[in-house]
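To the structural biology subgroup,

Please find below the input and predicted structure for Thioredoxin-like fold protein, which we are adding to the shared reference set this quarter. The sequence is reproduced verbatim from the submission form. If anyone notices a discrepancy with their own records, reply to this email rather than editing the shared folder directly, so we keep one authoritative version.
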Amino acid sequence: MKLVLVADPMCSWCYGFGKEMTALQERHPEMSLEIVVGGLRAGATDVLDDAGKRFRLEHWARVEQASGLPFNRDGLMARQGFVYDTEPVCRAVVAARILKPEADLLTVFRAIQQAFYVDALDTTDGAVLAQVGAEALSAAGHPTTQDEFLAVWQAKSTIDAAASDFVRARSMGVSSFPTLFLSDQGKLRRVGNGYAHVETLEQEIGALLAA
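Predicted structure (tokenized):
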């Protein structure tokens, strides 16, 4: 039995949900976690204009109120010529999975989210992602260099693997992020759609197990 999280690091509700997932993992160490990256805006080419920034700030305010996690609003507003393409950041999660399959991928996922939402780093840049990803893996006890991470991130096989995740997310019937599933003997059961506190997740998982 394991948990399967379908999410995108540059989805603000997924950022808020990261804290709840960490709490859920702490309560259920017997359950492993698989992360499927969703590709929220994979391949986007449009530059984020002021209207797009304001739209995102409205979402950020709601996530901040629900989760209590911080957002760097000034960092977003200061961005110039930023293309909100989530393929690179999703691929970084896949690269970490390929590099260190034994690592807790949620730690890397949340480190990348911290880099984007709090540190205002450009998480569409491979060098930035390699640095953040390598540091997160190394801090979790899986020594990795930035060059190693970047090489895997750039590999065509990693690009293909990320694209496969996007296809898989759609095949699972996921239409919004985050979506959490409970996998029991290969059968997926949906725990819930969207952001939820850990107590609510506990109740939903308990109901599924009791059914």
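Summary notes: The first helix runs from residue 12 to 27. The chain has one domain: 2-210.

Regards,
Lab coordination
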